[in-house]
Amino acid sequence: MLRHPVGAATLRRLVAVSHGLIVVDANLRPPHTSPNAVDWAVGVANLLKMNALEAAAITVPDGIEWVCVTHGAEGATLRRRDGRQWEAPAVPSVVVDTVGAGDAFLAALLDGLIAGDDPGGALTEANRTAARVV
Question: Which of 58, 64, 73, 126 could form a disulfide with 108 if both were Cys (CB 3.0 to 4.6 A apart)?
Fold first, then answer.
């Protein structure tokens, strides 16, 4: 949504009045990557999800409560602001189509974290969910 001026303005207004969890899925898709938009989104996030390639390109500020990095067939990691970190291996699967896997992963992760589940368990369930989608 940050690619379009109306969408970007709408998101900025919503974030300004939000009292809830602000989740950002990096989804860097060249040529639609504006450093200013990425910096703004990362700066307002409570939880940032990105893949390993995106993690190499994004500077993560210290104040983010949760940072999740997906590594495809290598699983995923989740780090909390207090320094705790969890890792979950990928679930072996036959990949038919990856469309929607990242969104399903993030939805399952958020479901677990918001429910108060163990973060490692939430991460493991997110990997299971993504494997079912692919």
Answer: 126
- Confirm if 126 and 118 have CB atoms less than 8 A apart: no
- Nearest one of 69, 70, 67, 72 to 84, comparing CA atoms: 67
Asked if 70 and 51 count as a contact pair (C-beta separation under 8 A), the reply is: yes
- In the predicted structure, residue 1 carries a pLDDT above the cut 70: no
64-85 average pLDDT score: 97
- Characterize the bridge pairing of strands 47-51 and 23-25: parallel
Q: How many CB atoms lie within 10 A of CB 43?
A: 12
CB 76 within 8 A of CB 52: no
DSSP, collapsed to helix, strand or coil, labels residue 118 as: coil
Q: pTM for the full model?
A: 0.93
Residue 63 structure tokens = 């104040």
pLDDT one-digit tens code per residue, 13-33: 999 999 999 999 999 988 878
